Amino acid sequence: MQLDKFNYQEVKIKYLKFLKSQEVKSEPFRNKLTQLNKFYFPISKMIHKEFLKNKKTKIIGLTGGQGSGKSTISNILKIVLKIGFRLETLVFSIDDFYKTLKERKLMAKKISPLFFTRGVPGTHDVEMLYKCIKNLKSHKFKKTVVPKFDKSTDDRCKKNKWIKINKKPDIVIFEGWCVGVTPQKKVDLITPINTLEKIQDKKKIWRNKVNIELKKKYQKLFNLIDQLIFLKVPSFKYVYKWRLLQEKKLRATATGKKIMSNHQIKNFIMHYERLSKHMLKNLPKKAHSVISVDKKHRLKSIKFN
Description:
Blueprint: H1 8-22, H2 32-52, E1 58-64, H3 70-84, E2 89-93, H4 101-110, H5 126-137, E3 144-146, E4 149-150, E5 155-156, E6 163-165, E7 171-175, H6 195-200, H7 205-222, E8 227-232, H8 237-253, H9 262-286, E9 289-293, E10 299-304
Parallel strand pairs: 1-7, 1-8, 2-7, 8-9
Antiparallel strand pairs: 3-6, 4-5, 9-10
Helix pairs in contact: 1-3, 2-3, 5-7, 8-9
């Protein structure tokens, strides 16, 4: 499909309206239309091309460090795919499949206290997620629901707030910080990567368990992905900076709910540090598309592998 066949005006209006709803006063979006034309249209064309191969539901994995823009980019791609390419598009996050607070408390008690903190492989309900994606891809698709997770309460939402999926999607954008990540070599697990691992994971129980989960359950899940897009941040230190921005947005919308302090966020992202650095090293070679994000949080370049 050529761009001149798009309802470009409608795409542009919805796109700009969405960005306005996402803006935080301290960091507005820059070069909005340039980004739309240079990044979001080419990525959407790539996804459309993948769909046209056999017109079966395609799972598009979108991965990258915390605060790299996955949620925003997913929703923009949905606008372009739905309005521009007329593709039924569903977006959900691996975050919505976190185990419940009760389940993670049990993991913390049985395996390691570090599993109380959501995020790393092992803290998601992979079986539920696998069945969900298999159903979405199946030609015998059945109406289903996708859970929702409330980060401000650190628990799964009640079922009446889950997303109902009544129609089989053409495209599923499956986003999450660890989507598509590969397990590490055993030798890479020996040395602690930060103070959290050094003090709270002296016997390497937590990081070994995370790696085992990745090798088994998660690789089976990630094999369902048809195209993987990796958002490559400049370095891990920007994960903290941008995670603070995420929390600022949450503070603005989650009145009266529990929000993390800056110190708590710093401790929180230490749980993610090992795999985030591993992804920065390995995923640029593995992903089908690599989008580089600059230090000012803007899309800088795109590479199709």
